[in-house]
Automatic annotation (TrEMBL):
Residues 1-25 are annotated as: Disordered. This is GntR family transcriptional regulator. The keyword Hydrolase does not apply. It comes from the Bacteria.
Length: 233
């Protein structure tokens, strides 16, 4: 398994973007977000080992925020302790995946219903535009942008529901599954369902939005099983 390789961030970028430790966010959360993003993007695979000392050196921070970040990620289910190996990126079983999708279905269906009632017109316009830009990125062959927009689309639904508890509950579930959907090389169905969901929310049709959200979770579950377990029989 590969070790985690993270770009050094000692010097400030030329565009003035804050480096680790310079943003108004606890350092442990900045480190957590960076590691989580690499998992989501597939740069870290299930089973990859995360060495606290190595991470601290690469990020230019002490081991304390790295240790705290890894503990946060354990709570979110992204990493786990394994005897004689240490901390690794979580390896999900079929049952783990099915459990996640059962919870995700309940939350996303409710989120779609609430979005129909609570989203502003500007928010709905932004969601619709996001779905359209993802399709354009697909047509342009820009799969990285398409994947980013697809992930952002999912993250936007609980925000449009204007329910903070729903959003914070869904965040770690969505994050653990974004990386799987990035590996889907036939995104047409996902894109079509995103457009259908955006249209249902725009029409304020809660029943239709809930139905599309439920079908979309089932589509995602099938893709997840194909990507993670097809080779295992």
């Amino acid at each position: 398994m590969t070790q985690l390789s993270v770009p050094r961030r000692h010097a400030a970028p030329a565009d003035g973007t804050p480096t680790l430790g310079e943003r108004h966010q606890p350092l442990r959360e900045q480190v957590r977000d960076l590691i989580r993003e690499r998992v989501v993007r597939g740069e870290l695979a299930p089973g990859d080992r995360l060495v606290e000392r190595t991470l601290a050196e690469e990020l230019g921070v002490s081991r304390v925020p790295v240790r705290e970040a890894l503990n946060l990620l354990k709570g979110e289910g992204f990493v786990q302790d394994v005897p004689r190996r240490g901390v690794i990126v979580t390896m999900l079983s079929r049952d783990d995946v099915d459990d996640l999708f059962e919870v995700r279905e309940a939350l996303e269906v409710q989120g779609a219903r609430l979005a129909c009632r609570r989203a502003t017109e500007d928010e709905i316009a932004g969601l619709t535009d996001m779905a359209a830009r993802a399709e354009q990125a697909r047509d342009d062959g820009d799969l990285e942008t398409m994947a980013d927009l697809n992930a952002a689309f999912h993250d936007a639904i609980p925000l449009l529901a204007h329910n903070r508890t729903l959003a914070t509950t869904l965040e770690p579930l969505e994050g653990r599954l974004h990386w799987v959907l990035r590996q889907n090389h036939s995104p047409e169905l996902l894109l079509r369902e995103h457009s259908e969901l955006a249209a249902a929310i725009a029409d304020r049709d809660a029943d239709r939005a809930a139905d599309v959200a439920r079908r979309h979770v089932e589509t995602s579950r099938a893709i997840c099983h194909e990507v993670m377990f097809a080779a295992k029989g």
